[in-house]
Design goal:
single chain, alpha+beta, five-stranded antiparallel beta sheet, about 60% helix
Length: about 180
């Protein structure tokens, strides 16, 4: 009886182990991808993510052929910046921007009513446009709104007061005030 119980237990364990080995083999075959398939899957995911990012980000991106300076690709934001009302690319404007970005790195370009920082990555042949209109206006406003304290020294003013009439002194004072406000 003990041998029969042990035999049943061993047979049950054996069937249990065989079932799990078959299950693992099935899962291995079903879910297994080759290394190339995994690399292609990851590459596809990265390409899709990059394409979605380039489609949605507020930066103009233009891929250039550096030998011929021809446009190979551009994202929709660059299309908004560089196209005319007819939907055609404004090549003279683009060539002017390209030449300025080549001659002076970190150049600004005024396109329409906006100011863009233009950066050319020569290694990859990619031209980037960053809208810096708000930043430029804020800097200009900051510079023009700073309070200025100035001291003007008029040489021999005391001597002038003693020798001239009150009306002439008044005219000199108003001239100095107008001069100071113009600065």
């Amino acid at each position: 009886m003990l041998v029969k119980d042990n035999l049943i237990t061993i047979a049950s364990l054996f069937l249990f182990i065989v079932f799990y080995v078959l299950l693992f083999n099935f899962q291995k075959k079903y879910y297994k991808k080759t290394d190339i398939e995994q690399i292609q899957y990851v590459n596809h995911q990265a390409t899709d993510s990059l394409s979605a990012l380039l489609e949605q980000m507020p930066v103009g991106v233009v891929k250039l052929n550096m030998n011929s300076s021809e446009i190979e690709w551009f994202n929709p934001y660059a299309e908004l910046i560089l196209t005319t009302e007819d939907g055609e690319i404004d090549f003279p404007q683009f060539q002017k921007i390209l030449k300025s970005s080549i001659s002076t790195p970190g150049a600004y370009a005024i396109i329409g009513e906006k100011r863009y920082a233009v950066h050319l990555d020569r290694n990859s042949g990619v031209l980037y446009f960053f809208d810096v209109s708000g930043e430029y206006e804020a800097t200009a406003e900051l510079v023009t709104s700073r309070p200025v304290i100035g001291i003007i020294s008029v040489d021999n003013y005391d001597d002038l007061e003693n020798e001239t009439s009150e009306s002439d002194i008044s005219h000199i004072n108003s001239f100095c005030c107008k001069f100071c406000f113009r600065i």
